[in-house]
Amino acid sequence: MPPKATVYHRRKADANQQEIVRVLLLAGASVADLHTIGRGILDLLVAFRGHNLLMEIKDGKGKLTPSEEQFFATWRGPTVIVHDPQDALDKLYIFTEK
Asked: Cα(44)–Cα(66) distance, rounded to whole angstroms?
């Protein structure tokens, strides 16, 4: 009997993702949309001033999924949760000033 296939469901983008991406691009960042990968991978890979940062977008009071929590706990690079465009810019500037 062949091994059972793993099915990954396409993730829907958060309602505020398009606006967050827009302001990041206007600020001069490069943005790669990763939200459709799923499996706990965060929504955006953002490059700015020579730094890379993974961003998880949550609208309203959205919480991390168990797979996202696992990703945050094990990823050895910079990650942030953002809730709106201003929050994304603030965290991007704080991170890149280090």
From this structure: 18
User: How many CA within 13 A on the CB side of residue 46?
Assistant: 33
What tens digit of pLDDT does each residue of 37-71 get?
Answer: 878 889 999 999 999 999 999 987 788 989 999 99
Cβ neighbours of residue 22 under 8 Å, at least 6 residues apart? 85
Q: What is the pTM of this model?
A: 0.81
Contacts of 62 (CB under 8 A, 6+ apart): 14
Task: 65-68: list long-range contacts, CB under 8 Å, 24+ apart.
Answer: 65/40, 67/38, 67/39, 67/40, 68/40, 68/42
